[in-house]
Hints:
Layout: E1 2-6, E2 9-11, E3 33-35, H1 37-51, E4 57-64, H2 68-78, E5 82-87, H3 94-108, E6 112-114, H4 124-127, H5 130-137
Helix pairs in contact: 3-5
Amino acid sequence: xxxxxxxKRVVDYAVKIRVKPDKSGVETSxxxxxxxxxxxxxxEEALRIKESGRASEVVVVSVGPAQCVDTLxxxxxxxxxxxxxxxxxxxxYPLSIAKILKALVDAEKPGLLLLGKQVNFQFRAFFSEIxxxxxxxL
Length: 138
């Protein structure tokens, strides 16, 4: 069985978040970024399933700008077998991410798709609905 784990690049949980001067969002330039802690938990669980012999491959997936590759490398260093980066430099919304994940599921044919519970970043509730949307369109 193949497991796909969707991971997100967010501001590191230990960094003090600053609001942009124009109050349009969170300042992300020159800020340490890391894997979303909830996505990290999902990846750790996928790796436990693989170690128990119930899965043959763990694939990490990230959708976003080129900087997401660093987060994918972290996933590979944790033990994932492969990484897929969907380069999308624009603004992402839950439905567009869900459609991208559906296309990946159709192409990769995993036995299990894991997502973190929520995103530890601005618009937390907004991005926590991605799992529901993926479930709906699958």
